[in-house]
Amino acid sequence: MLAASQRARARAVVIAGLTLLLSSATASAQTDFPTRRIHVILPYPAGGIVDIVTRIVTEKISKTWGQPIIIEPKPGANGNPAWDQVARAEPDGYTWTFLSPATMANPRMQNLRWSEKSFVPVAAAVWAPSVLAVHPSMPVSTVKEFIDYALKNPGVLNYANPGIGTSQHLNTMIMLNATKIEAVGVPYRGQPPGIMDLIANRVQFKVVSIGLVTEHIENKSLKPLAVLGTTRSPLLPNVPTFTEAGYPEINVVAWYGYGVPAATPAAVVAKINQGFTEALRDPEVRAALEKQALQPVAPMSAAEVAALYASDTEKYAKVIREANIRLGD
Questions:
Q1: Helix H segments across the chain?
Q2: For 221, which DSSP code?
Q3: CB-hemisphere CA count at 13 Å for 210?
Q4: Among residues 107, 64, 108, which one has the least CA distance to residue 84?
Q5: Reading across the β-sheet that carries 130-134, which strands appear in turn?
Q6: How far is residue 100's CA from residue 112's CA, in Å, rounded to a whole number?
Q7: Domains of the chain (ranges plus CATH)?
Q8: Closest CA to 314 of 163, 97, 126, 107
Q9: Beta partners for 255?
């Protein structure tokens, strides 16, 4: 009996030692992160604004960490294959993806293997303000005048929709739902074709990324009414935000962020968040982002990003429910 008891104690000591060794190794790996290259799987094509932002920020992080960060654009099927790949990746911090509240509402529009809970948000990089622009022939100069005109002419106005589930589409739907405007959406593949048709008056209004239309606004081809932004855009300093115009419920501002698979250790999430924070404080990084008509986000902890992510995703999910939006509509 004594020998059996001693063997049991010996096994317990060995198990405890192995557990401690494994825990120490795991903690060391998390503290030393990163020790190898990182892959960023993007749901959009190379050369687009998401790709540009990602390269600007991760180039700085890569130099700071001394590890390569590989950008892998994998567009198609509304970005879902890319997010599905990252959702199923090892939760070790070495696979990142692009996140935004509008795109994370995708599973509310179709049945997918992933949801917004498949990811842990690690950083918010930039605010991506948009502007409500109309054809200059419209007899309106303010948001209130636009709403009044649209309500008096139900179903007459057309708007450009750059894609089901995009932030521009969902922000337009938030505006229409909040104001009870009846308008006809015209589908386009991306923003540029819709801008050209807005200039040609084939559609009468559009929620559009500011950087894509500043030139058209300057030459009076388009008329800006209000900005979806936390503040006025430096590119459109005379154009009020929706909040300033009296419609804060419409002022849902798109932002670009990044995430990792759920169950990624908290220490690794914190290290990645720190990397983004340091990069976004760099004057050269900020200048490069501002050149793209984007506003760098002030430093936020991973917990603060997660709270913003959950809140804004629900705002988009709400309009998806209310308007019964489905991919393929």
A1: 2-32, 49-65, 80-87, 143-152, 167-179, 191-199, 214-218, 266-281, 283-290, 302-323
A2: S
A3: 28
A4: 107
A5: 184-187, 158-161, 205-209, 130-134, 223-228
A6: 17
A7: 36-126+254-323 (3.40.190.150), 130-250 (3.40.190.10)
A8: 107
A9: 127
Q: Could you list the pLDDT tens digit for every one of the 329 residues in the chain?
A: 545 566 656 565 555 555 554 444 444 445 699 999 999 999 988 888 889 999 999 999 999 999 999 999 998 887 889 999 999 999 999 999 999 988 888 898 988 999 999 999 999 999 989 999 999 999 999 999 999 999 999 999 999 999 888 889 999 999 999 999 999 999 988 889 999 999 999 999 999 999 889 999 999 999 999 999 888 998 999 999 999 999 999 998 889 999 999 999 999 999 999 999 999 999 999 999 998 888 899 999 999 999 999 999 998 999 999 989 987 54
Element (H, E) at 227: strand 223-228
Residue in 315, 314, 285 with CA at minimum distance from that of residue 299 = 285
The radius of gyration of the chain from alpha carbons, rounded to an integer in Å, stands at 24
Q: Which residue has the tokens 């154009």?
A: 239
Distance CA 166, CA 187 (A): 12
- Asked whether 9 and 38 are in contact (CB, 8 A), the reply is no
Give the dihedral sign, CA 149/153/158/163. positive
* Structure tokens that stand for 159 in this block: 């708007």
Amino acid occupying residue 238 = N
Give the closest residue to 23 by CA, choosing from 271, 302, 267. Answer: 267
